[in-house]
Specification:
It is a single chain. Helix content is 33%, strand content 24%. It has 268 residues and is of the alpha+beta class. The strands form two sheets. Strands 1, 5, 6, 7, 8, 9, 10, 11 and 12 form a nine-stranded mixed beta sheet that branches. Strands 2-4-3 form a three-stranded antiparallel beta sheet, with no helix packed on it.
Length: 268
């Protein structure tokens, strides 16, 4: 019942802001290149999508308005208290927004779903004791994961990620225009002021695949339709992906996402 109520609130929230709901494919021809994500491949050679991001950006580049999607996504080799192979992701893109605008909008939605609270902002560098310039990517990933787990009993936006961890966010003044929202030590959202430069996008996707080789992960073909959309022109926008099951768990005080899923891994 709580999940259904939260879904109604979410849809009303976006309706009031003229953000259109869209339904994205669960199956796609391409996997993502993100070195941290392993996609599930089906027998016919397609992939269960780990995020609606690529398809949503293709819609935006084709002239779509601000849009949101709520639906199932899939990631291989992700298990644990706050993970499940299949989970529900809320993702949206707001035209003309930057990261600051989107953080304010995300905070407003979070307050509507979980109740109002104060929000802190902490830079990535302030949460780690590492020399960011000298640390390896794996060291940075581990350091921030440990730091986030310590952010208990508060809502914190982590900002100013190192340029090496920009993913598909813009880089401004040497840092990624990216943020994550952490609630009670749990990372629930990851947002960007979106990269629009197609040449830089191609460079990053290629670098991702080199990193995947180094980590002995599968190396997917680069999604040429995704690149072509950026070549036509992705409009200025900011986007964020939210783990909806984690929000539901936080709302009811559950100890794991499995507690808010009728058929989690092991019972599906």
């Amino acid at each position: 019942m709580e999940r259904a109520r939260m879904l109604r609130i979410t849809r009303r929230f976006f309706e009031e802001r003229d953000v259109l709901e869209v339904q994205m494919p669960v199956l796609g021809r391409h996997a993502v290149t993100d070195p941290a994500i392993e996609c599930i491949r089906t027998e016919d050679g397609r992939f269960l999508q780990p995020s609606p991001e690529y398809h949503m950006k293709r819609l935006l580049a084709a002239g779509g308005p601000s849009i949101f999607s709520i639906g199932p996504v899939f990631r291989a080799d992700e298990a644990g208290r706050w993970h499940n192979t299949e989970f529900t992701m809320l993702e949206w893109y707001h035209l003309g927004f930057d990261a600051d605008d989107l953080m304010r909008e995300l905070a407003a939605l979070t307050d509507a779903l979980l109740g109002p609270s104060d929000y802190e902002r902490r830079t990535f560098a302030s949460l780690t004791a590492l020399d960011i310039d000298d640390a390896t990517t794996d060291e940075l990933d581990l350091a921030i994961a440990v730091a986030v787990a310590r952010l208990r009993d508060k809502r914190v936006f982590v900002t100013r990620y190192p340029a090496r961890q920009a993913a598909l966010a813009r880089i401004s003044n040497g840092v990624a225009d990216r943020f994550e929202l952490v609630i009670d030590g749990i990372e629930v959202a990851n947002g960007y002021h979106e990269l629009t430069d197609v040449e830089e996008l191609a460079r990053r996707l290629t670098a991702d695949n080199l990193a995947r080789c180094e980590r002995d992960r599968s190396v997917p073909d680069i999604d040429r339709a995704f690149l072509a959309a950026h070549a036509r022109g992705l409009p200025d926008c900011a986007g964020v992906a939210v783990g909806f099951d984690r929000l539901v768990a936080l709302k009811i005080g559950a100890r794991a996402v499995a507690d808010v899923m009728p058929f989690p891994d092991g019972r599906a």
